[in-house]
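Worked example 3 (structure in, sequence out).
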């Protein structure tokens, strides 16, 4: 007992602070001298609020959106091919190192640091009586689920990781062995199953006063235990599917238990972070994760692997034919249509040389030659003139002069990155809708009905369990849920565009483009039928499922999509064609361990050193030799 009293005393001293209490006496043990009976609730709140667990931070997104980070290599969001320096060096490992290490690689150390309270929580339960356990067990159970969620996510990035001896510093274990990745997954899946099954009983066993404290401390779900059960179940399904290609027996056991338990969430699970982001974003200050978005705004262009699956007909948006999420996820080009970024540099450069403001496109395929010549000549007169056109304001002329270095295909001038009407007036390819994703107060994503339906579609297609529906029906459901998810996401934004710089875009038109009205149920159902037919006719069903996953997660699920790309080898990407018509087929399978492991934990690190590279696959990859890329575009 003396040991735990000493630990509590040291924790109280460590956690003491002098700031005023948070709203409704929220106990944060890092900032407040919490009473002894509040240590467990405080540590629970500390863990779930830590960034890089549920909340992404500025740094990881700044590096991840670098152009040679996970978003670029996985073709989720990319820079147009006119970025010579990035794409010419696409295959050089030195480019991957900093960008991958500082984005996904940062999860290794941060996970162990930020779930460290788990060890003290475990000891406190073991050294106190049953009454104490009854009032505090729930906190430990949830943090244990979060811990194993973090460890499986680390396996997805690093493969073998320290697990069984991790977080045992309180016991004097400082140099930690690496565990087999597959065994870590087995243990974590089973732990999450067992801890989840006990959450309801632990919650009900608490006194009314303790449940009130739990509600107060739970900044995620405000004390709603059913939501915690739903999230934990959805995550177990996600990770069970991750191993399904290499350990079908284990996957099926968990899938059957989940499908028979009726505990999957019945709503999208998101929550509002206790801070605001939009003012920091617009000013370029603050350490919020959307700051990483806005500072990397030139990585927001939509590659064809995404665009061509949304924009199916002409380049204009055609309701019922095109994906109803297109207007809320993408911003139109300066021509008012939607086109993606081709990953072929030579085509981009040829077009740039021919006409300064037009990016490659099928939009000119059927154009009459005379009309084409007149259009090009008009562009040349305007942008080669020594003075502005009569229709241009002085500010517009200044804008055009300042973005000359961007090759006139996209806005690459920092002073104008907050002017979304400028992006609408200049960009020759579509970027993601920045009002939806950046100029917003984005909720923290936990799980969504669309994600669950896409997992269920794969289960039905591969006959891994009985879902009660066909894969095509789950796909249609996923679409409907995703449409609602993204239009609701867009509606959260209170951003109002600055006075417009382009006469053709009135403020009202800009608002309409950035905040499109949600499509009717008839339009959504019509496209759901198109999706069902596409799926039925597809020779590769997983390609369609993964295309839908790319569209739904897009920029908020960069790391999840990178993991699913490596697991399924789908959707098939377009090879990046750089200088001299060289097609790049780089497949980054994992990130490297932090360099500190080589010096601090060298004996244990030596046993995994052989896999410490970017090309050794994670254990759940069934066929590592299968290419990420479309065979018809390979040399």
């Amino acid at each position: 007992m003396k040991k735990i009293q000493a630990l509590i005393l040291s924790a109280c001293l460590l956690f003491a602070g002098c700031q005023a209490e948070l709203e409704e006496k929220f106990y944060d043990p890092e900032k407040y001298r919490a009473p002894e009976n509040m240590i467990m609730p405080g540590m629970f709140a500390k863990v779930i609020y830590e960034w890089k667990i549920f909340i992404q931070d500025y740094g990881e997104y700044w590096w991840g959106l670098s152009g040679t980070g996970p978003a670029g290599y996985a073709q989720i969001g990319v820079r147009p091919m006119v970025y010579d320096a990035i794409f010419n060096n696409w295959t050089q490992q030195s480019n991957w190192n900093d960008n991958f290490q500082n984005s996904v690689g940062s999860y290794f150390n941060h996970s162990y640091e930020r779930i460290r309270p788990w060890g003290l929580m475990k000891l406190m339960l073991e050294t106190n009586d049953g009454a104490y356990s009854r009032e505090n067990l729930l906190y430990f159970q949830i943090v244990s689920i979060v811990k194993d969620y973090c460890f499986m996510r680390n396996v997805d990035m690093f493969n073998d990781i320290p697990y069984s001896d991790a977080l045992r510093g309180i016991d004097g274990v400082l140099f930690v062995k690496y565990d087999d990745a597959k065994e870590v997954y087995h243990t974590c899946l089973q732990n999450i199953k067992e801890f989840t099954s006990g959450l309801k009983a632990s919650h009900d066993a608490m006194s009314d006063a303790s449940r009130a404290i739990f509600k107060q401390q739970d900044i995620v779900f405000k004390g709603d235990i059913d939501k915690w059960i739903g999230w934990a179940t959805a995550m177990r399904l996600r990770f069970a599917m991750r191993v399904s290609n290499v350990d079908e027996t284990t996957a099926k056991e968990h899938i059957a238990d989940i499908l028979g338990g009726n505990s999957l969430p019945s709503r999208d699970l998101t929550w509002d972070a206790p801070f605001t982001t939009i003012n920091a974003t617009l000013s370029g200050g603050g350490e919020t994760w959307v700051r990483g978005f806005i500072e990397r705004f030139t990585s927001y262009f939509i590659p064809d692997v995404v665009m061509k699956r949304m924009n199916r007909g002409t380049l204009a948006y055609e309701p019922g034919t095109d994906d109803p999420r297109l207007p809320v996820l993408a911003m139109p080009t300066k021509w008012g249509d939607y086109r993606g970024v081709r990953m072929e540099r030579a085509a981009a450069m040829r077009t740039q040389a021919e006409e300064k403001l037009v990016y490659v496109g099928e939009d000119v395929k059927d154009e009459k030659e005379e009309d084409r010549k007149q259009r090009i000549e008009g562009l040349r007169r305007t942008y080669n003139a020594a003075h502005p056109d009569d229709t241009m304001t002085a500010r517009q002329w200044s804008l055009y002069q300042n973005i000359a270095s961007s090759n006139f295909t996209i806005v690459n001038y920092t002073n104008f990155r907050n002017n979304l009407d400028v992006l609408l007036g200049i960009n020759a390819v579509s970027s993601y809708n920045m009002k939806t994703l950046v100029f917003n107060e984005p909720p923290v994503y936990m799980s969504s009905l669309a994600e669950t339906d896409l997992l269920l579609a794969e289960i039905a297609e591969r006959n891994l369990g009985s879902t009660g529906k066909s894969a095509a029906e789950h796909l249609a459901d996923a679409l409907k849920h995703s449409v609602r998810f993204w239009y609701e996401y867009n509606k959260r934004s209170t951003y109002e565009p600055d006075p417009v710089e382009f006469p053709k875009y009135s403020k009202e038109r800009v608002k309409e483009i950035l905040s499109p009205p949600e499509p009717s149920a008839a339009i959504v159902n019509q496209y759901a039928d198109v999706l069902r037919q596409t799926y039925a006719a597809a020779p590769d069903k997983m390609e369609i499922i993964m295309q839908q996953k790319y569209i739904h997660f897009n920029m908020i699920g960069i790391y999840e999509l990178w993991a699913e790309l490596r697991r399924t080898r789908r959707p098939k990407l377009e090879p990046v064609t750089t200088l001299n018509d060289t097609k790049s087929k780089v497949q980054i399978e994992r990130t490297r361990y932090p360099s500190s492991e080589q010096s601090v934990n060298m004996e244990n690190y030596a046993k995994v050193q052989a896999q410490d590279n970017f090309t050794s696959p994670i254990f759940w990859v069934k066929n590592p030799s299968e290419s990420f890329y479309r065979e018809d575009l390979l040399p």
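Notes: Residues 130-158 form the longest helix (29 residues). The mean pLDDT is 84.
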